[in-house]
Design brief:
- This protein is an alpha/beta fold.
- The chain has ten helices and six strands; from the N terminus they run αααβαβαβααβαββαα.
- The N terminus is likely disordered.
Length: about 290
């Protein structure tokens, strides 16, 4: 009994919440954001009903492929979803259609969303990195929608080429011609990657310049407001104002963190209370 009491006291000192505290956390969030929209299921919100139906059909075709068919790993990446980007749903469906046509059996999908290819190399990404570092024997090909969806730095490209040659893997781009065993093809791929790197650098410069200009203006002009804020017209000008519902969520997270509640526990409470994220997805502890 004395040891159990000491253990419980130790948990309190390091900030581990008790079961009754978790129920209290969940009730508090539900009270603050009860009127918010219902969070979606694990399926990404970008998928429509038609896309999900086609996904099921393509998976059914994949299941009847022979065991000896080439094993493909799909790599889906997106920094941020805008009207000008190729959605994760479209990337995956296009790749699955290609795999069915070529008789490639899909063994996994590495979905790295909200990940910049200029900041994280393929082996550093959460899902793709797990396959490249820990599950090498499980696939033969890496399929991606376009080279700049997979990689944007020349140094990363050379590392991927060396890695593929070392482990006998074949990278395949749906919208680029790749044939790594050929020196000419490697030079062409390097050129494409160089163009992508220059494009990324130019985009960064344009965005930074626009942000500097915006800071000097007396109204909000660019970008998505941070979670907890929104834009609204005030005296005819677009201003940054608090979003009452999201501001409550931010205050709850801050208060919980100050009480020592772990980040992953806060995320679970928010998910159970059906509190939507900025992108209407699931919370995590990042």
């Amino acid at each position: 009994m004395e040891q159990g009491a000491q253990h419980q006291e130790g948990e309190r000192r390091v900030g581990v919440p008790r079961v009754d505290e978790l129920h209290e956390e969940r009730s508090r969030v539900q009270l603050h954001v009860r009127s918010g929209p219902t969070a979606p299921t694990q399926t990404a919100p970008e998928w429509t009903a038609d896309e999900l139906a086609e996904l099921a059909e393509l998976k059914a075709k994949d299941e009847v492929l022979p065991e000896g068919a080439p094993r493909g790993l799909l790599s889906v990446r997106l920094s941020s979803l805008t009207e000008d980007t190729t959605s994760p749903a479209r990337q995956e469906l296009d790749l699955r259609r290609h795999a069915v046509r070529e008789g490639i059996r899909i063994v996994g999908v590495a979905r790295d969303l909200g990940v910049s290819a200029t900041k994280k190399a393929p082996r550093e990404r959460k899902e793709l990195g797990d396959w490249l570092n820990n599950r090498i024997p499980e696939f033969d090909l890496i399929l991606f929608w376009k080279l700049d969806r997979f990689i944007r730095r020349i140094s990363d490209l050379h590392e991927v080429i060396k890695w593929c040659e070392k482990f006998g893997k074949n990278p395949a781009s749906l919208n680029d011609t790749l044939d790594l065993p050929s020196p000419t093809a490697q030079a062409m791929v390097t050129f494409i990657a160089a163009v992508a790197e220059i494009e990324a650098a130019n985009t960064k410069t344009r965005v930074s310049s626009h942000w500097e200009y915006t800071k000097q203006q007396d109204q909000w002009r660019i970008g998505k407001p941070s979670f907890g804020y929104k834009t609204a017209r005030v005296s005819g000008k677009l201003r940054l104002v608090q979003d009452p519902k999201r501001a409550r969520v931010v205050r709850y997270m801050y208060a919980a963190a100050m009480r020592g509640v772990p980040a992953n526990r806060i995320a679970k409470v928010l998910d159970r209370a059906k509190v939507p994220t900025y992108s209407n997805g699931k919370w995590n502890n990042q």
